Amino acid sequence: MGQASIIARGNQLPSAELNLGGTSTSTKVFLNSAGTAVTAILDKDTLAGTPGKAFSRIRVVAAGRVTGGGSTNFTPTLYWGTSTTTASNTALCTGATVAVNSVSGTWEIDAELCIDYTSVKITGNFANQISGSTTTFTARAAVTNAITASSTPALSFTTATPQGFCAAGAFSSGFAGNIAYLDVLQIEMVG
What we know:
By secondary structure, the chain is mainly β.
């Protein structure tokens, strides 16, 4: 990987506590203290590309802390979109489901992505790790969904509407002590 420079960071990090109401097992977007999604926005110039340049490479990292309030698993997901509702975003990378049974640990998703200006597409690969009841590292694999002009929200290189990434988490069993935080959400320009 070449020299990277951070081009965007999540707004208002760390996120507010994500405990899904203590009993929920639904996937929930990490929110800031104002109740909006913590997002890292790709600026319009990055999305527009450089004249004569066919593609750019970016790296998106989402990471944080997690505590299981009982016998439960945690699953992080990186989304394309800025909505507080997961259905209004597109799941880009879903991490492994890992036990965090009454323990605290950390989680991370690391996505290496290519912005293809010719086909209007973002695709790539990702890896993730969760340190919970055990430490699990998932080797690099293709992203779950390529981001295109047909995605929700649609990828556009000409819109002034902010476009970017957010993260979410889900617990498999509901406990009042289930908590997770998003501490890092950043976009790096790699090449």
